[in-house]
Every structure is written in structure tokens, then in C-alpha cells.
Amino acid sequence: MTPDPLSIVDAYLAAQSARDFEAMRGLLADQGFCYRSPITVFDRADDFIQYAAVSSGIIIDREIRKVFVDGNDICHFMTYRIQISEKLAVEAAQWSRVHEGRIQKIEAVFDASPYRELFPNDEPAP
């Protein structure tokens, strides 16, 4: 029996907190995967996991504030506590879509201005 979509996304977020990139990858679709945020876009799960492994060092903590479930669509409202040059709290919404027992789409929405200050010459994601 396939776990329900919320359990799959919650397992992914638990693996993310534990920095267990192998477990994270196991929960992502092999075909048709898409990640989109204000700072980056990935169409391959392996590329996204490599990026997550490099960029996760700035995350200090995460608080899940609210979760909404609509069939295979899961939306988490979260606060990330990050350390760039100073400690910041970043409010974020993450919409995940589960298909055939794996996460096929993740769309993260947040204020990306602290990141853009680090990389002023980078263009924002389309």
C-alpha cells in the first residue's frame, strides 16, 4: 500500500532536516521532477539533491506552521531560520505534488532578497 501524499512529503521534510540526502532523493520522482523557487529551477531530481547538499549549510532550523492537503497537493507554511552573514527568519510556502508515491513537483515561495544580496549578478529564476 502506497503511503498517503502527506506522509511522503513529511518524510521528505524530515530527511531534509536530518540532511539525509539519500532519503530525500528516494522520495523524489525519477521522471518528470520539477523544483522551482525564486532563486533556482531544477528539472532533474539528482541535480536538485546536489544543490540541496551544498546549500543546506545555511539552514539552522525550520518550523512548520500550517499544512494544507488537497488530494495529491500538499502545502506547508514554514519559517526557516538561516545563517547567511547574520541570522534571519525566512517565511516560506512550499507546494508539493505527489504522483505515484513520489514527489513530482516542489514549488517554494519566499522573499529571496537576502539571497540576491549574496549573488547580486545572478538573474532571478524564470
Characterization of this structure:
The chain has 126 residues and is α+β, with helices and mostly antiparallel strands. It contains four helices and six strands, in the order ααββαββββα. It has helices at 5-17, 21-26, 45-55, 113-118; strands at 34-36, 41-42, 59-70, 73-83, 87-99, 102-110. It has a six-stranded mixed sheet. The longest helix has 13 residues, at 5-17. The mean pLDDT is 90.
Provide a short characterization of the protein structure.
This protein is 29% helix and 40% strand.
Query: Which oligomeric form is depicted?
Result: single chain
Query: Structural class, from helix and strand content?
Result: alpha+beta
- The counted number of beta strands is 6
Task: Note the total helix count.
Answer: 4
Percentage of residues in strands: 35-45%
What is the rounded Rg? 14 Å
Q: Report the mean per-residue pLDDT as an integer.
A: 90
Major sheet strand order: 2-1-6-5-4-3
Distance between the termini: 38 Å
Give the overall shape, derived from the CA principal axes.
globular
Low-confidence region ranges: none
Helix percent reads 25-40%
Q: H/E element string?
A: HHEEHEEEEH
Main sheet summary: 6 strands, mixed
Structure keywords:
126 residues, alpha+beta, six-stranded mixed β-sheet, 4 helices, globular
Layout: helices, strands, pairs:
Elements: H1 5-17, H2 21-26, E1 34-36, E2 41-42, H3 45-55, E3 59-70, E4 73-83, E5 87-99, E6 102-110, H4 113-118
